[in-house]
Amino acid sequence: MAQQRRVQLSTQRPSSTVCVLGTELALDVCGSAPRGAASFHAQATPGVKLWVLCEAQSVKLPSSVGRWPLAPGPELLLAMDAPSKDAGDEKVRISYFREAGGVPVGRAVLYLTCVEVSLDADVNRSGAVSRTLLDKTSWTWGPEGHGAVLLVNCDRDDPGAEGLDNEDSAVRSYNDLKDMSQLVLRTRGPRAIFAGHRLLLHVDFGDADKIRVFYGGSSAELEKFKHVLGGSKLAYTVRPGRHGHESVFYVEGLSFPDVAFSGLVSLHVTLLESPEKGLLESPIFTDSVVFRVAPWIMTPNTAAPLEVFVCRWVPGAPTPLAAGSAPKSRFSRFPRSVDNNEGFVEAVGALAERAQCPLTVCPVPQNRQDRWIQDEVEFGYVQAPHKTFPVVFDSPRDRGLKDFPVRSILGPDFGYVARQAPEGASSLDSFGNLEVSPPVTVRGKEYPLGRILIGSSFPRLGGRRMAKAVRDFLVAQRVQAPVELFSDWLHVGHVDEFLSFVPAPDRKGFRLLLASPSACYQLLKEKQEEGFGEAVMFQGLDRDRVPKPTINEILANEELRKFNDYAQSCISWNRDILKRSLGLAEPDILDIPQLFQGDIASGAEAFFPDMVVNMLVLGRHLGIPKPFGPVVGGRCCLEQRVRELLEPLGLSCTFIDDFFSYHVLSGDVHCGTNVRRKPFAFKWWHTVP
């Protein structure tokens, strides 16, 4: 329905007004009728369309009805098809008549000037601003949806700048402008009209702290671009050119969607009529555009790798445990002395080379002896039709690597976002406790960008939970609806200690890997029955540092078995949640042999390096913690079982020794690495949350 404005008429003197292209004027024919008038007749110049609404009927003028009775309260509407060349170059004349009179008892003349005022953005999501018949004041999801998209300008295109691009009110480079969404104000009409009226670009008070708008006038020079809207600036007066003009504004997002921000922001342009001196301006037309701020999106293990990150560590300084864990006794009572990780870095580099993926090594001065790069950051991206760039999410963990994301990752077309934990960060706030599934369909509901998985204390009362600020942020992004799993049974408490995803050529395109004490006991029992009960764990490791239990000793350890029954029950609880929440069936899940140790009070840790579940996935190339399991027939039986499960899927298994460099500190390969991955081909605005 066209925007409509009511206009008063006068039989005392001619009046004039502006009609904006695409709108309608409702003329108050009854309110201006002279005393005794019973009917009216309307005429207009060729550039004006007239029609009468009377008793629920719409009649276009001129018609066979010469006069219209005033008694039912008819409406006279008009519209214009093209901008005027001169002010007042079109008009409407209303003649009033008595009941039986042939001579008018009064006339009202209205001079009209048509102007075009249009505020446009990339509502079609094509990557360019164009005019559209779609409703610019609404934003809809789905492949048939519409609405403009706005990026949070959270990268740093100018290497000389100190903060993020959206933390200052300056445009420092043309690349900075490319991160912003265009907003185009189009005006056409006689210059005299715009001289007597005012065009006001404005933002709602509640949205002002979410966006910033820049304008450079007719100049393309960077220094001409000024901050005109957003923050404390709620309105900006635009001065159009002589006959026709396009004013191009650039809009940047300042905030991601969050618990108190839906992500929707509105910008408006209003045409104000300037009355006589001493009176306030009155609005006669408003056009609006709604933007949605693009969400931060995670990528799953199954996405193609673009860059691998690992930290180099050298002995001689205190070494943080994974995600803040504390030393405690273990079944095998490993000492927590650690080696440097040079061999680990080389092994990861070799795997990355086979996967044809660049490797970035974070040196000691940058990581400050903190090797747990998976716990510190999560790589994702933001996307608009005109631009996509990666964004690193910095956890509230803030240990040795806390400055690494800003100092070494933030840069041109590489953004940064963080959330803090005012209540104090726990181990569950580290991002080893943040994963995302591949795309899934659950009972007919599609999740084309997958679902975020986070660990929690549920179903246990009390216990640790991920910080509210982080959970609220993840939920507010909407496109990867989070699922809470039970991870507080673990000492460190991360979901990456018992689950992972790998690509597969069939079914849903992936397999969910779950740690399985039951599968491990079954494997060890098989080997015992085959006569290998005296085969030992941890063969090849330093005998003085690592006890070597046999298969028989492990199977005879009732305390260890009872604890693993408990661990299996916790994993089985999560298995049921994952099947319901991700729409999985048993053939979509692989059980990976794994044992845990510890006690219920302090939580579970991996008894041997956490195979496959805590792994590095680079396409078909897998970097798996070397388990140092019992050697049977010249091969580690644990490695052999994993190969039997994964190699038929076309995956290549490489076992990496992380025992003394990571495992003894309560972490493994996945904890010590991180991967930036290729964004989804699917556009997030095509989802239906």
Q: How would you portray this structure in words?
A:
Its EC number is 3.5.3.15. Keywords: Calcium, Cytoplasm, Hydrolase. Residues 1-113 form the Protein-arginine deiminase (PAD) N-terminal domain. One of its GO terms (cellular component) is cytoplasm. It is found in: Cytoplasm. Helices cover 15% and strands 33% of the residues. The chain has 689 residues and is of the alpha+beta class. The two termini are 28 Å apart. The strands form eleven sheets. Strands 2, 4, 7, 9, 10, 12, 14, 15 and 17 form a nine-stranded mixed beta sheet that branches. A five-stranded mixed beta sheet has the order 1-3-8-5-6, with no helix packed on it. It has three domains: 4-115, Protein-arginine deiminase, N-terminal domain (Immunoglobulin-like), CATH 2.60.40; 122-294, Protein-arginine deiminase, central domain (Immunoglobulin-like, Sandwich); 298-317 and 337-683, L-arginine/glycine Amidinotransferase, Chain A, CATH 3.75.10.10. The chain is elongated.
At the first level of CATH, the class of the largest domain is Alpha Beta
Largest sheet: 9 strands, mixed
- The CATH level-2 architecture of the largest domain is identified as 5-stranded Propeller
What value does the average pLDDT take? Answer: 92
Q: Approximately how much helix is present in the residues?
A: 10-25%
- Low-pLDDT stretches are 324-337
Number of domains: 3
Query: What form results from the Cα inertia axes?
Result: elongated
CA gyration radius, whole angstroms = 34 Å
Instruction: Please name the CATH topology of the largest domain.
Output: L-arginine/glycine Amidinotransferase, Chain A
The proportion of residues in beta strands is 25-35%
How many helical elements? 11
The quaternary structure here is single chain
